[in-house]
Design goal:
The chain is an all-alpha fold and 203 residues long. The protein has nine helices and no strands. It has two domains: 54 residues, Homeodomain-like (Arc Repressor Mutant, subunit A); 138 residues, Tetracycline Repressor, domain 2, CATH 1.10.357. Helix 7 packs across helix 8.
Length: 203
């Protein structure tokens, strides 16, 4: 490995270290309590150094969110290569979302409950190429395929995609945040949810 490669590797590792520390700080302090000064103290570097990599706390939060969606996108793309039938594909995409989210609860909390406008105004979401948008497009494409093959009845794809995401998001959030009620097994809840989706929106 040459000098340039070693230098780039060091920069990438340091950037990842900053993001890991920022994730922990956001989880502990929330958006209002987060500051670049606190982050600098946590990683024992100056705030000036952090600004070489990230503009501000919103930029940090954006990259944390994109890391979450990048992992989802990688799994989605691998599944698409399998040539699985649309219904099985949609089921597995939703299962994967639940599994990944529950495996990373602190990241999930930060991504969805820190700043509701990390990606800007609602009308701006589709104007910027992001990992989040790529994940959204895949879900919509698979839902469209389910409609074309008769697995799901015809309706507006975007509306149904939002409804399905809201359903899965509610399940994940309940499992992460509920501490004073005996929740059923996550896999059991996921399968019951999927059965309800295909029965409720099927032909």
């Amino acid at each position: 490995m040459g000098f340039k490669e070693r230098r780039q590797k060091h920069k990438d590792e340091f950037k990842a270290e900053i993001l890991d520390a920022a994730l922990t700080l956001f989880a502990q302090e929330g958006y209002a309590g987060f500051s670049m000064r606190k982050l600098a103290a946590r990683i024992e570097h100056s705030a000036t150094t952090i600004y070489l990599y990230f503009r501000d706390k919103d930029d940090l939060l954006f990259h944390i969110c994109e890391n979450f969606y990048a992992a989802l996108l990688n799994n989605q793309q691998e599944m698409l290569k399998s040539g699985t039938a649309p219904q099985q594909m949609l089921s597995e995409l939703l299962r994967q979302y639940v599994r990944h989210s529950l495996a990373n609860p602190e990241q999930y909390k930060v991504v969805f409950f820190t700043n509701p406008q990390t990606y800007g105004q609602p009308e701006e979401f589709f104007q910027r190429e992001t990992m989040s948008l790529s994940c959204w497009r895949i879900i919509c494409d698979v839902i469209e395929a389910c409609m074309q093959t008769g697995v799901l009845r015809r309706m507006d794809v975007g509306t149904l995609a939002v409804v399905l995401w809201s359903t899965v998001h509610g399940l994940v959030s309940s499992l992460i945040f509920t501490k004073d009620f005996p929740m059923p097994d996550a896999d059991v809840m996921t399968e019951v949810m999927l059965e309800g989706i295909f029965q409720g929106y099927g032909q």
